[in-house]
Amino acid sequence: MLTLRTTGTIGASLVLLVAVLAAGAGAGVASLLGGGDSAPSATATSEIPAAMLTLYEQAAASCPGLPWSVLAAIGQVESDQGRDDATSSAGAEGPMQFLPSTFAEYDEPVPPGGANPPSPDDPTDAIYAAARDLCANGARDGADLSAAVFDYNHSESYVAEVLDLANSYGETAAEAVATSTAGGIALDWALAQVGTPYVWGGETPGVGFDCSGLVQAAYAAAGISLPRGAQDQFDAGAQLPPGAPLEPGDLVFFGGGPGDVEHVGLYVGVQDGQAVMVDAPHTGADVRVEPFPTTIGASFGDEGFVGATDPAA
Question: E-assigned strands of 198-286?
Fold first, then answer.
């Protein structure tokens, strides 16, 4: 869970929503079903390629009651979103790791953009076939989602892993409110640039960004004008006290000190117990989500954590 500041109306709404979520904890699969149509979380957008995410959402829509996030979680567990889709020792193939015999049961009708004849190695064919498989075995209308995942891979630990990951892929109520803020809008925009090359002086989507160029463009998308350089962005923002809770979209800065800022990123949240940001790191790398320290002066590569600002304050 993110720790949130309570200043202002949005902050109060976020705290209220977190309290409501906490009161409903323990709902298990029911909570997942309730969020089946939720927007992708920061975790989802950082892990799932945009084209795959679209396919999961489209394929899930063909089965009422099937959350897209379950399809996405299976794709992550089975093949790291198609990045490791080699044929297994058991003969399972493609991004959703289908046995040929099982794929043949669910490969038709051929979805728009799919291969003809259908192939388990084609992401479109495989994801739609997985949706049909799950739908036929308990996912339709949310009848028994756990059973559907168990039928996909006969392992209770597999079911738990998939459903836990699926929950992390769906946007929480708190995140949904955050996305309506300027910081949330800027963060969503920046996350959509993940994979764009680092280019010194870059400020163009699909072409390249440097760190401050990414930040400036992200906040421009949220209707806030920021200076171009990291130092100027630090000086222009409402600086947060050391140790203050961070909210999605807050800017985090690195360098030799308050007067020697060299790098900036946008705070995303907490993943696996670590604060993470989206940033354009350095030459030879792409825009990415990565962990960072939140203690003033703590080392981050050759630089130190300088502090954070809220450009929307």
Answer: 203-204, 208-209, 238-239, 251-257, 260-271, 274-279
CA atoms 179, 185, 187, 190: torsion sign: positive
Pairing of strands 238-239, 288-291: unpaired
3-state DSSP assignment of residue 91: coil
How do 303-310 and 299-300 pair as beta strands? Answer: antiparallel
Name the CA dihedral angle for 229, 230, 232, 235, rounded to a multiple of 10 degrees.
Answer: 170
**What pLDDT, in 10s, does the model give residues 33-63?**
434 457 888 889 889 999 999 999 999 999 9
Percent of the chain with pLDDT over 90: 67
Rounded to whole angstroms, the Cα distance separating 205 from 197 reads: 10
Q: Which tokens in the block code for residue 13?
A: 């709404």
Within 13 Å of residue 166, how many CA atoms lie on the same side as its CB? 32
Q: Return the amino acid letter for 276.
A: V
Let me know: does 175 contact 186? Beta carbons within 8 Å.
no
Task: Give, in order, the Cα–Cα distances in Å from 96 to each of 52, 122, 126.
Answer: 11, 10, 6
- Using CA atoms in the order 242, 244, 246, 252, what is the torsion angle rounded to 10 degrees? -10
- Domains of the chain: residue spans and CATH: 27-175 (1.10.530.10), 181-310 (3.90.1720.10)
- CA-to-CA distance for 46 and 287, rounded, in angstroms? 10
Helix, strand, or coil here: 59?
helix
Please tell me the pTM assigned to this model.
0.52
Q: For residue 266, which of 209, 176, 183 has the smallest C-alpha distance?
A: 183
Per-residue pLDDT tens digits for 144-186: 888 999 999 999 999 999 988 988 888 655 555 555 688 988 9
Q: How much is the CA Rg of the chain, to the nearest whole Å?
A: 21
